[in-house]
């Protein structure tokens, strides 16, 4: 069989510099990273390093990206715990899974950031309805709270980040108990932030792909106009705008043997409009 040409792996590290907009959030995360990298300074002043972060905001606004970037800034291992690893349809199954995850975490000897995505679906605030399903969910939240308390007392190497699109669904007592000592709102980007996201993503692509003799973007780009046209989009949407243009260009490239013009402002605008759809 013919060997397919290898595409280079793209497991790029994510840094806080790559985040567009969200200036205050990034500043706060940098501060948290310092508290991990300088335990001696924290100890001298009796300052407690935050070990629980709740990030909330609409889908695609960069919560997962920020968590990865924070781990990178701390120099911590990144461990994402996906909801299916936890939720179990059998009675007591989810609680057992949570206990196992935290039992492992108590043994982490290197700084580790644990990310719980879609946190609301794990510890959904099930209200006061007394049915079996909501009682089971509340039990899961109770176990989580207890395990997180124990973990934070025992293992200073761990930082727990939970992200959610629905903060009001997260069991109040879990937040109030003080274990999530930092709550971070991650809103949709405004126009200036969208311009910055476009700029950073395009710079990233240029850095990764341009080389002598290959120009990826035309020099007529107007980030302001792109930001304006992409009203309502998130960072994830902007990434999709670029992904579509990249794919179109690659297809042309494959057809023509590389005879393709760089990505132009018009092509980017067209991709924005296509993704937004008829309004
Ligand atoms: P969800 O709530 O759906 O899990 P999320 O808030 O975790 O979404 P991410 O998965 O972090 O969003 O965002 C998807 C991608 O969009 C990121 O990998 C990143 O490339 C890009 N992105 C989102 N927001 C930004 C931003 N502010 N700056 C740069 N890139 C961004």
Q: What does this 3D model show about the protein?
A:
By secondary structure, the protein is of the alpha/beta class. The chain has helices spanning 23-37, 39-44, 63-74, 83-86, 93-105, 119-122, 132-154, 172-176, 191-209, 223-229, 235-256, 265-276, and strands at residues 52-56, 77-81, 112-116, 158-164, 182-185. Strands 2-3-4-1-5 form a 5-stranded parallel sheet, with helices on both faces. Helix 1 (23-37) runs parallel beside helix 3, helix 5 runs parallel beside helix 7 (132-154) and helix 11 (235-256) packs across helix 12. The longest helix is centred in the middle third of the chain and has 23 residues, at 132-154. The chain is elongated. The model is unreliable at 125-129 (pLDDT under 50). Adenosine-5'-triphosphate (ATP) binds at residues 18-22, 59-65, 117, 163, 165, 189, 197, 200, 234-236, 239.
Strands, helices and their partners?
Blueprint (H helix, E strand, L loop, with lengths): L22 H15 L1 H6 L7 E5 L6 H12 L2 E5 L1 H4 L6 H13 L6 E5 L2 H4 L9 H23 L3 E7 L7 H5 L5 E4 L5 H19 L13 H7 L5 H22 L8 H12 L3
Bound molecules: adenosine-5'-triphosphate (ATP).
Protein name: AAA+ ATPase domain-containing protein
GO molecular function: ATP binding; ATP hydrolysis activity
Family: Belongs to the AAA ATPase family.
A few lines on this structure:
Residues 49-190 form the AAA+ ATPase domain. The chain has 279 residues and is α/β, with parallel strands linked by helices. It is 51% helix and 9% strand.
């Amino acid at each position: 069989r013919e060997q397919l040409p290898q595409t280079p792996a793209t497991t790029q590290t994510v840094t806080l510099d790559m985040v567009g907009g969200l200036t205050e959030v990034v500043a706060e995360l940098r501060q948290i990273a310092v508290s991990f990298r300088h335990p001696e300074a924290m100890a001298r002043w009796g300052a407690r390093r935050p070990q629980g972060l709740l990030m909330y905001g609409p889908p695609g606004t960069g919560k997962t990206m920020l968590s990865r970037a924070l781990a990178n800034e701390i120099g911590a291992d990144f461990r994402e715990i996906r909801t299916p690893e936890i939720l179990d349809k059998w009675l007591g199954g989810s609680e057992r899974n949570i206990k196992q995850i935290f039992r492992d975490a108590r043994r982490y000897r290197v700084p580790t950031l644990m990310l719980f995505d879609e946190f609301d679906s794990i510890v959904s605030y099930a209200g006061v309805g007394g049915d079996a399903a909501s009682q089971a969910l509340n039990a899961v939240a109770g176990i989580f709270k207890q395990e997180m308390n124990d973990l934070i007392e025992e293992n200073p190497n761990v930082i727990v980040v939970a992200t959610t699109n629905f903060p009001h669904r997260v069991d109040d007592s879990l937040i109030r108990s003080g274990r999530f000592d930092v709550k971070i709102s991650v809103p949709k980007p405004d126009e200036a932030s969208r311009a910055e996201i476009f700029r950073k993503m395009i710079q990233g692509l240029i850095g990764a792909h341009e080389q002598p003799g290959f120009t990826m973007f035309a020099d007529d780009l107007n980030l302001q106009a792109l930001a304006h046209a992409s009203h309502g989009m998130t960072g994830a949407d902007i990434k999709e705008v670029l992904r579509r243009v990249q794919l179109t260009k690659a297809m042309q490239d494959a057809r023509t043997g590389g005879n393709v013009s760089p990505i132009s402002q018009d092509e980017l605008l067209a991709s924005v409009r296509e993704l937004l759809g008829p309004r």
